[in-house]
Amino acid sequence: MTDETPRLRRIREVADEVGLTTRAIRYYEEMGLLTPAARSDGSQRLYDESDIERLRAIRGLRDDAGFSVADITRLLEDTDHLARSRTAFRQAEGPAERLGIARGGLARVDRQIGLLGGKIDRLRAMLDDTTARRARIVALIDQLEAELAGLETRAGSGIVPA
Amino acid sequence: MTDETPRLRRIREVADEVGLTTRAIRYYEEMGLLTPAARSDGSQRLYDESDIERLRAIRGLRDDAGFSVADITRLLEDTDHLARSRTAFRQAEGPAERLGIARGGLARVDRQIGLLGGKIDRLRAMLDDTTARRARIVALIDQLEAELAGLETRAGSGIVPA
DNA sequence: CCGCACCTTTACGTAAACGTCAACTTCTGG
DNA sequence: CCAGAAGTTGACGTTTACGTAAAGGTGCGG
């Protein structure tokens, strides 16, 4: 046997590790974003490693990308569909059927890429603007420093090298 | 005189041009994000070109970057501070004072750059993941197409060139 | 088998970001 | 000068994304 000790964790531990509140995790479950790998005999939620990765992804999409939970739901649905596709894929009868599944997956991934790419492009445009402004300020500072150096040299005024 | 015809617009026109609702614009005003350039004799809001640019920026920060209005407030406060700095700058007595103002501006711009850059980096990481997945799918498709071509050639089966 | 921390569901509370009347006032073309 | 379109200030409604309190079950070291 492959040495499997799945290491299931309860919600609190998961929340601390991922950086979410337990409430948020339950909320995401309510919204259909994930289902814990298992439940204990009582009915406590038990999460495995893939659940944790998924939660990390959710957190990233929320905090970094600023996507709404609705957006995230759609993005993950695509990913999930892809995962299920892989299963269906292995059981598909012939190459023709497999090709169809793969092409569907491609379309979904392309949609994700489009969304992310667009967001990045627009952010980069903003960043470029800001960077240009920065350059102008730096130029200004250089000029002022030169001006000051000139004045001080000529006046021999006291410079305190802080 | 320089031929100034400021061309002030009312809220509806502005909303349509920028892609926001009139309510949203009034809301941003309520939140202190902008003040219309003027008011008519009655008390209708009148916006000039710089207001429109500002609203465009706000929309970009909201839609593209996913920043909250609170975040945007802070970012624009920085920009505003910078603008006021320019005025103060022109009236500053000497180069030393000017240098101080410019350096303050630099710090603020750098903060903005940091925020935007961080967001872009994390988005790019996600995009890279997705792109890698896409590549794997494309490879799979190629393989399947080759497989299918082989089968069809050998069987001489009917291909319908849709 | 007991206490205590942790978990469960249920349900109401809330801040943010607007949407949507309502009751007027203001412009503007004819 | 007057009708209809557009604007103004309230003020309450709505959705999203959780927070928080209530009223119990669960799990485990001692």
What does this protein structure show overall?
The structure is a homodimer of 162-residue chains. By secondary structure, the first copy, chain A, is mainly alpha-helical. Chain A has two domains: 1-64, Orthogonal Bundle (Multidrug-efflux Transporter Regulator, Chain: A, Domain 2), CATH 1.10.1660; 68-153. The first copy, chain A, contains five helices and three strands. A three-stranded antiparallel beta sheet of chain A has the order 1-3-2. In chain A, strand 2 and strand 3 (45-47) form a beta hairpin. In chain A, helix 4 runs antiparallel to helix 5. Chain A is elongated and about 85 Å long. Chain A binds a DNA duplex (30 and 30 nucleotides) through helix 2.
Question: What's the total count of β strands of chain A?
Answer: 3
Following the backbone from N to C, one meets helices and strands of chain A in this order, namely EHHEEHHH
What is the first-to-last residue Cα distance of chain A?
A: 68 Å
Radius of gyration of chain A: 27 Å
Largest sheet of chain A: 3 strands, antiparallel
Contiguous low-pLDDT stretches of chain A (5 residues minimum) are 158-162
Mean pLDDT of chain A: 86
